From TrEMBL:
Principal EC category: transferase
Protein name: N-hydroxyarylamine O-acetyltransferase
Protein family: Belongs to the arylamine N-acetyltransferase family.
Keyword Phosphoprotein: no
Gene Ontology MF term list: N-hydroxyarylamine O-acetyltransferase activity
Alphabetized Gene3D superfamilies for the sequence: Arylamine N-acetyltransferase, Cysteine proteinases
Highest taxon listed in the record's lineage: Bacteria
Enzyme Commission designation: 2.3.1.118
Biological source species: Saccharothrix tamanrassetensis
InterPro entries from the UniProt entry: Arylamine_N-AcTrfase, Papain-like_cys_pep_sf
Pfam families: Acetyltransf_2 (PF00797)
Keywords per UniProt: Acyltransferase, Transferase
Amino acid sequence: MWNGELLDLDAYLDRVGFRLDPQADAATTLRGLHRAHLKAISFENADIGAGVPIALDVPSLQDKLVRRKRGGYCYEQNLLFAAVLERLGHQVTGLAARVLLGREGDIPRTHALLRVDRKWLVDVGFGGGGLLTPLPFTQGAFEQQGDWTFRLDQEDDVWTLKSFQGGEWVSLYDFTEDPRTPADYAILNYYLSTNPASAFVGRLLVQRTDERARYAITDRELTVATPGGGPQKRSLTPDELATTLRDDFGLELPTATG
């Protein structure tokens, strides 16, 4: 399903700085690999802004995110991670979520995420302050990850991932267990990366979350948000943008000084 056999696993592990421990159990390895991926590979959409087609086949993802040390958005990140997990022997199911971030209304399910081994919610591609490590795929799952707190609720057939921010629970996204395939993601990817109405078209988006804060760049505005306080924002000059992308996000982007 995820073409893990096409992956250069050693190169990926070098990229994220993770060493497999043959003595570790599957859950420990999964959690460590999830966190290492997030730390090493930032969320970014620079190619979309530059009009570069977003390819989702494993060799293209490996070339961009591993060899060229770029980042990517949810389809790129989670499809690469699905290939890694499949190569390591995990059972991976693709899912699609409706991104809420506190919003309501008729919102399409366009975010890619993964269910792993039938018992873990896995997502290395959510730029809006998502999971640092996998969350148990059970009703009421509750976990502190650094300063962030997450909860997974189920009502009828809909699951909702929530984060505790600013003294209240904020719904990040909701989803069902209907499986998605790479072909499903290819259609959504084409729409989100080319349609002028897409939130990813027409502006630079770069994000990274660690145990303490979420760092986000929108065009030339840097936002730093923590679970307990309001976001801090400041505008960046072109030179500051390029430096921040390189030093804080690990990225050299062709649009950094544009």
